[in-house]
Amino acid sequence: MGVLRVAPLGTCRVHRPLRKISKGEGIEVFSDPINQYIHTTGEIIQRIGLLNEGLQNPESLEKYIFERALDRGGPNFPIMESDLFVIEVSSIKQISLGNYSLQMNRVINEAKPKLGSRFDEWMSILRRRVKDGYRPVDRVEEISNDPWEMIDQLSSHMQDELDLERDVGKIIDLLGGNVCLVNHINIEKPDGEKLLSRNLLCEMLSSVAKRLGVLLFDPTEKVLQDRSNILKKDGLDINHYSDYGEEVIGGALLEKIMPPTA
Questions:
Q1: In terms of CATH architecture, what is 1-30+79-92+161-262?
Q2: Domain boundary assignment for the chain
Q3: Biggest alpha carbon distance in the chain?
Q4: Cα–Cα distance between 153 and 168 in angstroms, integer?
């Protein structure tokens, strides 16, 4: 068998473990400066359009979509030549401006220094609108630099299972069906409580994967076997793998995605 070409679409939790295991394992990982980290199905669909069809985002929105300035150096191979797509969905909190999906953390990071002492008030409004769902009366394509005007321009909602299934189905159709889904690490916080939205996402994604007949990799069990070593900060960081953890999760992911040898 030749080299397996794998394209990750998600966060550091799929990009970094795949890169770690690609050395000497018969895997080539898709790399493109444009393929930075993403979290929601809306972002994933948008990123596929950018990488495969060259669909562009307005330049004024790039800082709300990408973590760093774009270096358009080009991919190591065309994304649609991938043998397998590893798709991590790690949030059901969708936020958009007009037709463009934005990253919530980028919106927050851009707004926070401008708000000063009123940031907590602004953040409370954003959380409530995401939870309850919010759609502005007027749809615009250019975002305001004033956080108080901006927040009234943004559409937001929490996905339910039907919405999630529709988007996952669209992702599979766009990529040709050869997909492995990955969910977030569904573990308790240091205080012993689970994040409700993350737990809901993991439950829904498991159901969606079964109904659509799609492979699903859940890193949770592997993490629980050695949490203090696999996660950063001796297991207290529930979002990031340690260097050792990336190798462990990469190995477990490899077992999931590699076709059996004859």
A1: 3-Layer(aba) Sandwich (3.40)
A2: 1-30+79-92+161-262
A3: 63
A4: 26
Give the predicted TM-score (pTM) of the model.
0.93
- Smallest CA-to-CA distance from 186 within 201, 208, 207, 204 is with 201
Under a CB-based contact definition with an 8 Å cutoff, are residues 113 and 137 in contact?
A: no
| pLDDT, averaged across the chain | 92
- The ranges of the chain with pLDDT < 50 are 262
Contacting residues for 99 by C-beta, under 8 A, at least 6 apart: 141
DSSP class of residue 146 equals S
State the sign of the Cα–Cα–Cα–Cα dihedral 100, 133, 104, 35: negative
- Look at residue 262 in the predicted model and tell me its pLDDT: 40
Q: Report the alpha-carbon distance of residue 221 to residue 186 in Å, rounded.
A: 9
Q: Which of 199, 208, 197, 202 is nearest to 172 (CA)?
A: 208
Give me the helices (H) in the chain, please: 12-22, 41-53, 104-115, 119-132, 147-153, 161-175, 196-212, 220-225, 227-230, 243-257
Instruction: Give the sheet arrangement for strand 215-217, strand by strand.
Output: 27-29, 4-9, 84-88, 179-182, 215-217
Q: Residue 162 corresponds to which tokens in the numbers above?
A: 């039907």
119 by Cβ neighbours in 10 Å (0-12 / 13-18 / 19+) ranks as middle
